[in-house]
Amino acid sequence: MSVATSSVDITPPTWRRWFADHPNQLLAVVFLVLVIATCIKEPSYLSWTGLRNTLLLAAPLAILAGGQTLCLLTGGVDLSVAMTATAAAYVCANKSSLGAATAITLGLATAIAIGVVNGAGVAIGRVNPLIMTLGMQGILVGLLTKGAQSFLKGSTNVTPFVKKLGGGAWGAIPYNVIVWTGVAVILIWGLRSTGLGRSIYAVGDNQLACRLAGIKVWKVQVAVYVLCALLAGIAGILLAGRSGSVDLQLTNFLLLPSVAAAVVGGTSIFGGVGGYTGTILGALILGVLERFLLFMDATEAVKQMLYGGMILGLAWLYAELTKS
Question: Is the model's pTM score more than 0.90?
């Protein structure tokens, strides 16, 4: 006697497959809707001044989110990026008397040193990235608070070159957007075309398989946290240039948005899925959203609640869309 069997169709609905296969198109639609809504609220937003203000904020955020994207792709996260950015900017301003080149170099070197410690803790010490980077955040807060009264006491103003880099423009194009463009090209090309880029995706997808394949997972993780810190340092110096001076709260407001931009852009918090192209769109969406909330007189508390809600909601949404 034969037993009848029936197959169950587990193919996801067509709409879900489309959203999963075309995340950037969906993000572009969201971006346009936000631009239209902002223009309705404030018609002058479409002026060059309005767009320039959005880009001046979006550029450092996108660079910071670029480092966060690398960490998320390996299944990690860096909660110390905001204070890393502030530390780099603080050192850059403190050493401004040595000249722009030396000050910037020392600021970026500080960021790289923080990245090395984070990477070593995660990759070699096997500390959970959340715990490692949260602990580093606290250490940096203490060091900078103490340092502002002792070994970092002195100038809090950046050099004219850094001011120009962070807030000036070449014709109609802000200099920080030019820096962002260079960073974007390197990140997109690096993730797609280099051995490190492919290893980052592989580590985020399956660390055990990577080890069995001979990939030095710890080296990939250290490299990722160093690159994340370097990008944070660049973003911090650009923000310092925009404001002209530094303080201990310089980049704190960008911690949640840096994660949100990557998650909004389709980078999975579980690793192995995403890329910097989506993060660019995510940063632009948050940049426009920031202006919209500004026109709506929203408080900083409301903004942070919104960013947190976006992270949770989109993490769930992308998980649902990519389920087989």
Answer: no
